[in-house]
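Recall from the previous lesson that a structure prediction takes nothing but the amino acid sequence as input. Here we apply that procedure to Asparaginase from Cupriavidus basilensis. The sequence below is the only information supplied.
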Amino acid sequence: MSLLPRVVVLATGGTIAGSSSNPASSAKYQAATVPVTALLDAVPALAAVARIEAEQVAQIDSKDMSFALWSRLVERVAFWSVQPDVAGIVITHGTDTLEETAMLLHLACVGTVPVVLTAAMRPSTSLSADGPLNLLDAVRVAGHADAAGKGVLLVINQEIHAGRDAVKGHTAAVNAFASPLAGPVGYVQDDLVRFARIPQGLPAQALPLPSVWPQVEIVTSYAEPGRVVVDALARAGVSGLVVAAAGNGSIHQSLTEALADAAAAGVAVVRSSRTGAGHVAIPALPRPSSGIFVSAGDLNPYKARVLLMLALAATPALARDPAALQAVFAGN
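The prediction returns the following C-alpha cells.
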C-alpha cells in the first residue's frame, strides 16, 4: 500500500482561523484566533487524504498583510519545496488581501511543487463554516499529481482558480472568489479533483523579492478628480503609480496631466481598470514627451501593483522605459 502524499500547511490566520462567541453570526467575529493545530483537528477526514505537517507562519487579519510576511511566506515555500517527499504546500490565508498574496506567490514561487492557497468567508465557529471543507479540498489538490506544474492555485468553494486570475468580488458570500475572464481551472467534489484546463501566463522564472520594496501606490480616476493626490505622491518620491481607471483605461484629463508630470519626473505609471474585469487596450494613452502610459492588461489595480513593485525592484530603470515595462506586463 502506497503512502499518502506529504502536504505541508502554512497558516497565516484570517477568517478561516477566526472565532466568535455567537455561532449564528458570520459577520461579527475576531479573525486569526484559532491555531493551525485546531483547524486541522477539526477536519479528521484529512487523515485519509495526506500526511500533514503544519507550521504557524503568522496569525493575522489579512487586512494587515505586510511585505515582511510576504517575504517570509516565499522563504517558507522555498524551504518546504525542496524537502524530500513533499507533494504540495497549502497556505491558509484571510480573504481581504488573498488576491494580492496569490499574485505575489505566482510571480515569486515558480516550480513544480503545487502551492495552494485557501481561505474562508465564515469563521471557524460559524454554524455553517466553509473553512473545513475548503481546507480539506486544498489538501486534496496540493497532494494530487495533476496539480504539479500548474503554478500557484486558489481552492475555495469547491473551485480551483489560478492564483494570477482569482479576485474577491463579494463582501460576504461563500462564492466570493472568481476568475472574471478565464474562469476556474478546475473543481473539487469529494475525492474527485478535476482540472479542466492549464492556467495561462505561468512565469518562466521567478521574480526576486526586494530587500527594500519600492513605494507604489494606487490612484483612481472618477468625475473631476483633483491632481493633489498624484502631485503629493510624486513629491513624496513614489517609484510607481497604478491608476484604477474608468472603463477601458480611460483617465480624466486633469488626472492625465498630473500623471504625465509624474512620469516625466521618473515615476512609472500603469493603467488598470476599476471595472473588475476586462483587458485595458494597447496602444495605451499618449502622454506628453514621455511615450505612453503602460497597460496592466487584464490585471486589476491590486495585482498590477504587486507586479510593478517587483519589476521596479528588479530593474529600477523600467520607470523611465515604458516600452520595456509594457513588455514585462505583457509577459505576466
